[in-house]
Amino acid sequence: MEIDVSINGKSLSIDIANPYKVDMPSVVKEISSFGSEMGADLSSHDIKGLLARMIKGVAGCEHGCPADAKGLVYHGYGQFKLNYVEGGILSASCELKDKKSLELKVFPGF
Length: 110
Known about the structure:
Blueprint: E1 2-7, E2 10-15, H1 24-37, H2 47-58, H3 69-75, E3 81-85, E4 89-95, E5 101-107
């Protein structure tokens, strides 16, 4: 599984070896550090909760998509605009306080 984080067109890719045992504090720290490098404050966004839901929505797609991706898109998550992309990909986007854009994508690992 792969997580792609984009802030104003600059991106960071994070590989997740096992989507059922994600070191979420480490992933969130990496994303927060990337945000800081890009001059974006991500502290007011629940990145941890969003990613946990996105990973759950995509994990297991190889056994019949989507695992729970469309349900997450239907219900939404905070200020994020969610989209299901064919092939089991979930994306979430929002505008940050400083008018920068944040986009997270979770790609299944198959």
